[in-house]
């Protein structure tokens, strides 16, 4: 008799147990197995992720993932130095770009956030240094995720709420507590691969070896 998997885990066609949310979608499985939760310090990738999490608001991450290369082309590889120089004609161009999410408010927000990222880089040294300074807070009083229902219910934490408030204070937009927590999960500031997921220990090892900026 096959052993039943803990709640929140599924077994893929490759026989590996993983978190429930990629289901059996190949591109989503690759993202889960190779990116989600792996610690990241590159400023452009951090900027990309927090902006794309803002675009995701009201949508699924899979929708954004499948358009990610289009977003990268549209927003100059998320080089915030270049995006900060976008003008109104760029906004109009992007609103007409069927390859991305054509939400004017989110497009304008990305340009605004690029300007704020430049300020952060100047004041803090790098985005990586500033965002990773939240790691200790993110680990405190954080519920242990055991199951699918607990992960779905988590949504945000005290740390992600505080991060959201600080970003908004600095002038960033579309950075609510849920967006900030999804960012923390994806960038490896926390490891929310469920117990029993074949990626959990890989991510833990990567975090242990990661050189904080």
UniProtKB/TrEMBL annotation:
Pfam families: Adenine_glyco. SUPFAM superfamilies: DNA-glycosylase. Transmembrane segments: none annotated. This is DNA-3-methyladenine glycosylase I. It comes from Pseudahrensia aquimaris.
